[in-house]
Design goal:
By secondary structure, this protein is mostly helical. The chain has two domains: 6-94, DNA polymerase, domain 1 (Orthogonal Bundle), CATH 1.10.150.130; 121-315, Orthogonal Bundle (hpI Integrase, Chain A). The protein has 14 helices and three strands. The protein has helices spanning 6-19, 25-46, 57-69, 75-94, 121-129, 134-139, 142-162, 166-170, 200-212, 234-248, 257-270, 275-282, 287-290, 308-313, and strands at 177-178, 183-187, 193-197. It has a three-stranded antiparallel β-sheet, with no helix packed on it. Strand 2 and strand 3 (193-197) form a beta hairpin. Helix 1 (6-19) runs antiparallel to helix 2 and helix 7 (142-162) packs across helix 11.
């Protein structure tokens, strides 16, 4: 076996995650961060950076014990660290640097599964009403109000009724929206593509936004733009959600774009949608991630939750209600 330094193997591993696995920069950084911390621990203990073949099951267990006892890592963080080490050493086996992985007989700690946090119907409805509220209008320059309120409603309704992730929403392009078939094409984790159908509420919200959308650059393809016509950042989207949660008077603890994603999945489950279909819409790699929604206590919410589209249809343009029959 080649006497390869851990650091050299780590550099090759990062390139592998990028080129072969096509993982996002954020995911790659998370892997590298965990592995660099392990390398730092080894160096302090042994006075030098390790060779890949020097890392044993015993040394990995010592590191995990250090994280648990000295740094008080929780089970979820320990599991992530183990996952990073496992994928790295499996890569080393594939590359012929090791015969077997030192993680072969190391198992993840048990993690108590928490029920997803989500909005009930009345909270979701208040959230969708908030962009049009007078309190928001009072804080916006008149020239910006209609533009921003229309965009923000489109952001909120897209989160609530498609269940897409924060980064997936930021990455949406104009070409992602298919109004002929009323669906969007989403590029998820690992560049896996999925199609999500759009209900009338989302279609209407997106159409109104696109009518007002004014990119600073004619070649700008991003669907959602800042007030300056540039692509929205993830931070800006989080701030949009945070602002309207406050305006709507929804309890703010833990409310985020991810909570809106949980709301979508939970409402689908409570309305009888099959778990396999929910998995496909959410873009979960395995059914295990989706099964958490089957543990939601539906009796507490069934009276409040009826159909997803009903919430959005409440916001149909006022003038539509006066159309002659």
């Amino acid at each position: 076996m080649a006497a390869t330094r851990f650091f050299r193997a780590l550099c090759d591993f990062e390139a592998y995650l990028d080129v072969e696995k096509n993982l996002s920069p954020r995911t790659r950084r998370a892997y590298v961060y965990d592995l660099e911390r392990f390398m730092s621990f080894w160096t302090k203990r042994h006075g030098g950076s390790p060779l890949v073949r020097q890392v044993s099951t015993k040394s990995v267990k010592e590191y995990l014990e250090y994280l648990r006892m000295d740094l008080h890592y929780k089970s979820t963080t320990l599991s992530r660290t183990i996952a990073s080490l496992r994928v790295f050493f499996e890569f080393c086996v594939i590359q012929g640097l090791l015969k077997t992985s030192p993680l072969t007989h190391i198992h993840n700690p048990k993690i108590a599964r928490r029920l997803p946090v989500f909005l009930v119907e009345s909270e979701a409805q208040r959230l969708l009403e908030s962009p049009a509220s007078h309190s928001v209008a009072a804080r916006c320059p008149r020239s910006d109000y209609r533009h921003l309120a229309t965009r923000d409603y489109a952001v909120l309704v897209t989160f609530l009724f498609t269940g897409i992730r924060l980064q997936e929403l930021v990455d949406l392009k104009m070409r992602s929206v298919d109004f002929e078939r009323n669906r969007i094409r989403v590029l998820g984790k690992g560049s896996k593509e999925r199609i999500i159908p759009l209900n009338d509420s989302v279609v209407r919200g997106l159409r109104k936004w696109i009518e007002l959308r004014k990119p600073a650059d004619p070649d700008e393809e991003s669907l959602f733009l800042s007030r300056f016509g540039k692509m929205l950042s993830p931070w800006s989207v989080q701030e949009i959600v945070k602002k309207y949660v406050k305006v709507a008077g929804v309890p703010s603890g833990g409310v985020s774009p991810h909570k809106l994603r949980h709301t979508f999945a939970t409402l689908l489950h409570l309305n009888g949608v099959d778990i396999v279909e929910i998995q496909a819409l959410m873009g979960h790699a395995t059914i295990t991630s989706t099964q958490i929604y089957t543990h939601v206590e539906s009796s507490r919410l069934r009276k409040a939750v009826h159909t997803l589209d009903k919430i959005g249809l409440h916001h149909k343009e006022t003038e539509d209600s006066h159309d002659p029959k």
